[in-house]
Amino acid sequence: MERVMLRESMRRHIRRLWDRQERESHGEFIAEGVRVCRELLYSRSYRALVVVIREGAGAEVRRLAQEFIYRGAVVYTATERQFASLCSTETPQDILAVVSYPVEEPTWEERMLLLDGVADPGNVGTLLRTALWFGWRGIILMPGGVDVYNPKVVRASAGAVFHLELHRAQEAEGMLQEIQKRGYVLLGTQADAGIPLERVRLPRRAVVAVGSEAHGLSEAVRQRCRIFFRIPGSGLIESLNVAIATAIVLYHFWQSHGASTFHAGTRSRAG
Predict the structure, then answer these.
(1) Which stretches of 94-233 are DSSP H helices?
(2) Using CA atoms, how far apart are residues 220 and 228, in angstroms rounded to an integer?
(3) Burial class of 269 by CB neighbour count within 10 A (0 to 12, 13 to 18, 19+)
(4) φ and ψ at 143, to 5 degrees?
(5) Nearest-CA neighbor of 71 among 40, 101, 93, 94?
(6) Domains of the chain, start order
(7) What is the pLDDT of residues 98-142, one digit of tens each?
(8) Angle of CA points 131, 133, 137, to nearest 5°
(9) Distance of alpha carbon 8 from alpha carbon 199, whole angstroms
(10) Is the pTM of this model over 0.70?
């Protein structure tokens, strides 16, 4: 693989993608790390425009970079100092990619997960990873939450972001009307709801809404929910972490509705 050193102009461009407005302006975001970049190779909706590897990176990273070259990406080599300036972690994994936003509109799955104002990048990334594990490919992201293309979200998702149908709502009311128009039943998690999770049966077209730990579901979403349910517990602490609570919910639906009713399958490399 021919070595092309990272230009300062490109370094500055990549660094600017830490800012949400810059990501939206350019339609690009950053994906960091070996696992995340490997998942990007499997994606049919996303592609790498530029890949940067650290000078002296190991054989695994160099092989990964070569695969990106085969797919049309430009690969640069960065000095250790340059590379560290682009990454969000103290111990970077020697590779990152600049990824283009998907061109095609996301599809509407029969069962969707709605994230209402979840602001912590680690939680959102974990939610995306968990949703994909249990076959929930459709994700609705309401306003007020962290940007799904924030580098910390992408990293925490372990690359799951590349395999999901992401519906990024510009404003809440319009998205809620769209959900209703398409015939979905909106269900909400609520700590004091009368119905326990084990009694909930999913409608054929369902959207399950989870809110932030600080504020729960927004008033707009609560007003549209037809069913509220709770996760039974000891009550010795006020609430569960939103990512853990959602994992419990999705596991319950996976068990009670049968794994075959959810989208499962093997990945195939795009190419």
Answers:
(1) 121-133, 151-156, 172-181, 219-224
(2) 14
(3) exposed
(4) -60, 155
(5) 40
(6) 8-100 (3.30.1330.30), 111-261 (3.40.1280.10)
(7) 999 999 999 999 999 999 999 999 999 999 999 999 999 999 999
(8) 50
(9) 58
(10) yes
